[in-house]
Amino acid sequence: MKRERVVVGMSGGVDSSVAACLLKEQGYDVIGVTMQIWQDEALESVSEQGGCCGLSAVEDARYVARLLDIPYYVMNFKARFQTCVMDYFVNEYLQGRTPNPCIACNRYVKWEALLARSLEIGADYIATGHYAGIEQLANGRYAIAMSEAAGKDQTYALYNLTQYQLAHTRMPLGRYTKEEVRQMARKYGLPVAHKPDSQEICFVPDNDYAGFIDRETEGRVPPPGNFVTKNGEVLGRHRGITHYTVGQRKGLGLSMGHPVFVLEIRPDTNEVVIGENEDVFTKELVCDQLNRMAVEEFRDGDRFLAKIRYGHRGTFCRIERTGEDSLHCVFEEPVRAVTPGQAVVFYKDRYVAGGGTIRG
């Protein structure tokens, strides 16, 4: 009987390396692949920063593949990454929104592009080292299940995957904690057992988003403008809207005598609206670009646990359809810093029901 073939996206880190080990133990015909996404990087820079898919990742992943005695390839997705992730990231900031590049990368590069290429070479599945699981529910739909390791749960960034993509995906780490994964790596003798996690956005390793946008646009960024109150009173000058996000307190350069926060970014007038801490809280949002996962449809009155950012613990809400591809969400208690451009992800029990992009 022919073994099922799985392509494992290997980032050179401990999670994807252990995922490859587990899948080989489970009897799959495993192929390791690293996605080359960086644009003309310098080896010394990427080695220092530990980017997730850079040249140093290739070295580590190739070494692990050799230990496991599995085929290993590097696949070039530079053009796809530039268009679907980096250009998207820049354009969202220019529109006064705060993007989530990991969500875009997952949907359009790590799944859409990698899955298509993997099927072309005879694979049945792709696999990753995400802390999440995939299950087929009683209604026949595939859904992402929350990780057993609550502190590492990565389901938020995976809400936008399609049913087809989920049906062709394996996620073997969903029931393990990070420490258990590191213990397995030591057991397997993997040299990446103690490799630290990557924290920053991979293509902005210095965490200077505004500087990256300035370089990508060759200086064609919005100029300085006014900080204003909700009532239009001018408080001072800002450095350009790409420097700010909703809820931000630090780095404003305003001397108000007490902490103040970004409430809104207005690209049309080049204004950044400033307010008090209580002004940052709201009980509602609207979202669009919907993706349904565990549920067939979103219905008026449905109640979900909703996360409005990766680190949000979640707050219960009820939804109302406002169009074919839009929802209005009303939370049961106020949530802080609802940020246009970020995702709102809905959970039913331990499964991702779906989600959408926050518009306001």
The general outline is globular
Strand order of the largest sheet: 12-15-14-13-16-17
Helix tally equals: 8
Query: pLDDT under 50 segments (min length 5)?
Result: 42-51
Helix content: 25-40%
Distance between the termini: 53 Å
Largest sheet: 6 strands, antiparallel, barrel
Number of strands: 17
Relative strand content? 25-35%
Q: In terms of structural class, how would the helical and strand content be classed?
A: alpha/beta
Rg over alpha carbons: 21 Å
Output mean pLDDT: 92
H and E order: EHEHHEHHEEEHEHHEEEEEEEEEE
Features:
360 residues; 6-stranded antiparallel beta barrel; alpha/beta; 26% helix
How would you explain this protein's 3D organization?
There is one protein chain. About 3% of the residues have low confidence. This protein is an alpha/beta fold and 360 residues long. It is 26% helix and 29% strand. Helix 1 crosses helix 7. A six-stranded antiparallel beta barrel has the order 12-15-14-13-16-17. A five-stranded parallel beta sheet has the order 3-2-1-4-7, sandwiched between helices. It is globular, with a radius of gyration of 21 Å.
